[in-house]
Amino acid sequence: MLSPVVTVSIFQKQANPQEYSAGQTIFEEGQSGDLMYGILEGEIDIQVNGKTIETIATGEVFGIGVLVGVEKRNYTTVAKTDCKLAYLDEKKFLFAVQETPMFALKVMKSYSERLSRVWHMLSDLS
Questions:
Q1: DSSP 15
Q2: Cα–Cα 20 to 30 A to 100, which of 1, 2, 41, 108?
Q3: Considering just the CA atoms, what is the radius of gyration of the chain in Å?
């Protein structure tokens, strides 16, 4: 398994990371998008229907769905703390996947685990 340090190093190669203040929304459920993010510093809350389903931190990735065929964001992300995020568009994502296959596995694992948690949370609500 690819460690968070290796995952972050892929994102650190990207210039001009974005900084967000605690409480600032990064993207909202239902929005279209063309970027995935890697957390260089800080924590992010992932919310569905206004409820935080998990908090992720340095080394984690999010927003992957829009790069693999999902048309709209299926959750909202809010900076829990001040944070610094790097991002990849589709072209850079595909390059990272080609050059570092373990990165692709880390991304797929993160995406599938997050979808599973969302599905279980929504099932519990109904």
A1: S
A2: 41
A3: 14
Residue 120 has pLDDT above 80, yes or no: no
Token match 């919310």: residue?
Answer: 47
Give the chain's largest Cα–Cα span: 44
- In this prediction the pTM is 0.82
Tell me the CATH number of domain 4-119, given options 3.40.50.300, 2.40.420.20, 3.30.300.30, 2.60.120.10: 2.60.120.10
Domain boundaries, the chain: 4-119
Q: Which residues pair with 25 in a beta bridge?
A: 78
How far, in Å, CA of 98 to CA of 15, rounded? Answer: 20
In eight-state DSSP terms, residue 22 is: T
Tokens 């931190």: give the residue: 57
Per-residue pLDDT reduced to its tens digit, 30-73: 999 999 999 999 999 999 888 898 899 988 889 988 888 888 99
CA pair distance 35, 117, nearest whole angstrom: 22
Whole-angstrom distance, CA of residue 82 vs CA of residue 33? 22
